[in-house]
Design a protein that fits this description.
The protein is α/β, with parallel strands linked by helices and about 270 residues long. It has 2 domains: about 190 residues, Alpha/Beta hydrolase fold, catalytic domain (Rossmann fold, 3-Layer(aba) Sandwich), CATH 3.40.50.1820; about 60 residues, no CATH class. Helix content is about 45%, strand content about 10%. The chain starts with a strand and ends in a 10-residue tail after the last helix.
Length: about 270
């Protein structure tokens, strides 16, 4: 397969419906392929970050303490006033979540809480077995499929970026969609690139020939949108508009002409595959 997709958060549902990680990967790959109009395979790791009991998952106070700090750092990056993100006990995290709802809607509030839960599971410990296992699953698929292109969405861009530093893989193109790689305090400072590599943070992964980033102008995950400022290894950066209700949706990103323009020089035309 010439393209491998790396998913972001809220993808455990594929496993819940399909029954096994292998089937979940195929279902997700089929969904992405339909949007992209090109065949691809998927690196599926959602089961490795699933928090287990999801009772109260929509309530910010149920987040681990570090994930609550992550949420407050996130809304600060979005421009929330200091009084929303400062205080004591659980009051500030509730204020931060409510500010998200007022600014972006209740669906965004729920999404941010779920995102912080999964992202915390990944980044809270540089050496956690779950973090290593997610990277290893991505690398296993890449080494088996030997793709020319990786398309990584959301949290998947963080997993893929780290994986490609920990064990470099030959790629013609890395495409990151709605990436939070540069989000201050939440991801950027927490990136783990492996022994001797952390000082190279921001560079293109060693065996990747070209890196393209695409960010929706209203995507609350893609912060800062001007990712090349922190990641000069990015060769091309496109800002797009997916619409208010779909500003972070992977399949909407995949339909963008900018994605096809980047793929076209490297791969056969869709109708010839």
């Amino acid at each position: 397969m010439m393209i491998v997709g790396v998913h972001g958060i809220r993808c455990y549902r594929y496993l819940a419906e399909a029954g096994t990680p292998e089937r979940a990967a195929k279902v997700l790959a089929a969904e992405w392929a339909l949007a992209l109009n090109r065949p691809l395979s998927a690196a599926y790791y959602a089961q490795l970050l699933h928090p287990g009991d999801t009772q109260g998952a929509d309530e910010p106070e149920t987040l681990p303490c570090d994930a609550q700090r992550m949420l407050k750092d996130w809304v600060s990056a979005l421009g929330a006033p200091a009084e929303v993100t400062m205080g004591h006990a659980t009051i500030p995290v509730r204020q931060a979540a409510d500010w998200i709802a007022r600014r972006f809607g209740e669906a965004a509030r729920r999404f941010v809480i779920v995102f912080c839960r999964e992202a915390h599971t990944y980044v809270s410990d540089r050496d956690s077995p779950r973090r290593a296992a997610a990277r290893e699953e991505v690398l296993r698929v890449l080494e088996d499929a030997k793709p020319r292109v990786v398309v990584a969405h959301s949290l998947g861009s963080v997993v893929a970026y780290e994986a490609l530093w920990h064990r470099p893989v030959e790629l013609d193109l890395l495409v990151t969609l709605g990436s939070p790689l540069g989000m201050p305090q939440v991801f950027f400072e927490r990136l783990s690139l492996g022994a001797g590599n952390d000082e190279r943070k921001g560079q293109r992964p060693p065996k990747v020939r070209r890196w393209v980033n695409i960010a929706d102008v209203g995507d609350i995950v893609a912060i800062p949108r001007d990712l090349p400022r922190l990641f000069p290894g990015i060769d091309a950066h496109h800002e797009v508009s997916l619409g208010l209700t779909a500003s972070h949706k992977a399949t909407r990103y995949l339909t963008r002409s900018e994605v096809e323009q980047e793929l076209a020089p490297l791969l056969p035309a869709p109708d010839s595959q």
